[in-house]
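User: Can you help me understand a structure? I only have the sequence.
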Amino acid sequence: MAPKRIAAALWGRFSGLGLAMAAMALAIDQGYKWWMLAVYRIQERGRVTVTPFLDLIFVKNTGISYGLFSQDGTAGQLVLIAIALVASLALTVWLARAETRLVAASVGLIIGGALANAIDRALHGGVADFFSLHAFGFYWYVFNLADVAIVAGVVGLLYDLAVPNREDASNAT
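Assistant: Let's start by predicting it. Here is the structure, written out as tokens:
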């Protein structure tokens, strides 16, 4: 593939916006994780009650979502890092083809969250999670800000699919 074709596949009209969102999500997540681990030292505090429905606690997730496919060894973490990098590259191609700011920002959030969690795997041997939501004795899984960015990105993409934009609405009449 010629260099110009590669560049065209990886850069589009809203790529700057999407990559800025990715960088922001990654920086906020990694900054918060650094603060929680190095300054606040959450791993020494155990469970910290913040509100009646939110606790802070350190959990190292060696698997994927909800701890599925746990990989305790280095080789398993390297495979998960590789998957995140390949997915981020594929998302970068999607970002280059994004036709709206919402899609670009949403894909960027997903890229940033995936890369932030991949960095965790490289630095900590798993993803550092801190937020535990709970109510009425039910504890939801423990998550981090990268996970929030990924979910927000997915919600943005679903919204884009569900709500027609003005241009589509005017073409339908």
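Now, to help you interpret it: Residues 12-161 form one domain. DSSP finds seven helices and four strands in the chain. Let me know which part you'd like to focus on.
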